[in-house]
Amino acid sequence: MIYFDSAATSFQKPPQVLKAYTETLRSAASPGRGAYRLAMRAAEAMLNAREEAAAFFRFSDPERVVLTMNATHALNLAIRSLAVPGAKAVISGFEHNSVLRPLYACGMEITTAGRRLFDPEELLGTLRSELPGAALAVFTHVSNAFGYILPVREIASLCREYGVPLIVDASQSAGVLELDCSTLQADFVAMPGHKSLLGVPGSGLLLCRGETKPLLFGGSGSDSIDRAMPAYLPERLEAGTQNAPAAAALAAGIRYIRRRGRDAIEAHERELCLHMAELLGGREELQLFVSSDAAMQSGVLSFRCRSRDCEEIARMLSQEEICVRSGLHCAPLAHECAGTLETGTVRMSFSPFNTHAEIEKAAGKLIKII
User: Fold this and answer.
1) 14, 253 contact by CB (below 8 A)
2) Is 112 helix (H, G, I), strand (E, B) or coil?
3) Closest of 80, 66, 72 to residue 242, by C-alpha
4) Which residues on neighbouring strands pair with residue 89, listed in sequence order?
């Protein structure tokens, strides 16, 4: 099997991640709910995950690293903390439904800055004109549909200039692109644990510089007599029993990335993407969505075929044991910007564990299909 759907979930996991998960499952109970060994083991797993994440992302306070169920959960927490019904929210033209739907649910007026694929100058120019009067801004670091790396540092700088709180969706960048929170200074950075951080499904992180509001209410293991959620983090945003095995797996994934080298992983995934684009390029029946500037392209390649439906191509690749994703990728706004809303695309997304031999084999199969 060749797995090219890591933008959805990284399937191949380092052995250390699986070991951390199973060992914690066997040796830990509920964190923060007792002083006995099993409870303390769970609490240690949670603390270790916060500390690993804070060090990796150069985030100053591990206690403000909130463990979530996924990036969607993290984004909902961040948006609910900043949303003002009826006020303006500025987003890019490449946001996931995990951003769009919470903003709509909060009754915010949504304005889009940046609607041209692989055009950071257009994005920054329109952003400067849209930021005045905005209550918040939400920007993805990388388009999940097209692999477009947005100029997140410049976006953050403009938001600081205009005094607009910023939420960064790092779902497609955390673990593979540089993400230095000490210089970014976004109010919130949200990310999943199960994608490029190589953890397991059911895990995520929210790095909180800004003031927070709870999304869920319930037990926190502390201040039990108080009918309100605790005023301090992380307990304020972590109602209910937390997933200690997933936290341990996430910490192990971060340690693996640090040992292998984040920059080496970034370079490898980009090389795979450009290799695939080279093998598929120059064919009239294919439209590839790839930047001419490699610095704006992550390890995600989208394409569509002029003579075949995207779903049909994905199905035929699946019959060849090649795993890709087709459709709109939960990002209809991005496809509207790219002119692919009616057709969708086939998306290939690569991981540290894919090889150039897999690229060549999959390209050959695809060429035969089309």
Assistant:
1) yes
2) strand
3) 66
4) 110, 136
Span 332-353, pLDDT tens digits = 999 999 999 999 999 999 999 9
* Tokens standing for residue 276: 């695939």
Q: Which of 155, 116, 118, 123 is nearest to 138 (CA)?
A: 155
Half-sphere exposure of 27 (CA within 13 A, CB side): 13
Instruction: Give the pairing of strands 166-169 and 109-112.
Output: unpaired
* pTM score: 0.96
Residue 191 tokens read as 């990310």
Gap between the Cα atoms of 299 and 177, Å rounded: 10
Name the DSSP letter for residue 35: S
- Number of C-beta neighbours around residue 264 at 10 A: 11
CA neighbor of 328 nearest in space, from 135, 120, 100: 100
322 touches 276 (CB < 8 A): no
Q: Which token pair is 140?
A: 């993805």
Residue 110 in tokens: 């949504």
First-to-last alpha carbon distance for the chain, in angstroms, is 20
* Rounded distance between C-alpha atoms, residue 4 and residue 314, angstroms: 11
Helix (H, G, I), strand (E, B) or coil at 43: helix
Prior bond of 62 cis (ω within 30°): no
Q: Tell me the β-bridge partners of 191.
A: 205
How far, in Å, are 83, 104, 124, 211, 334 from residue 100 at the CA level?
A: 12, 6, 20, 21, 11
Q: How many other C-beta atoms can be found within 10 angstroms of the C-beta atom of residue 54?
A: 19
pLDDT tens readout for residues 56-89: 999 999 999 999 999 999 999 999 999 999 999 9
Q: State how far the alpha carbon of 337 is from the alpha carbons of 98, 173, 183, 266, in Å.
A: 18, 21, 30, 26
Domains of the chain: 2-9+261-369 (3.90.1150.10), 15-260 (3.40.640.10)
**CA–CA separation, 313 and 309 (whole Å):** 6
Nearest to 247 by CA among 10, 37, 2, 17: 17
Which residue type sits at 211? E
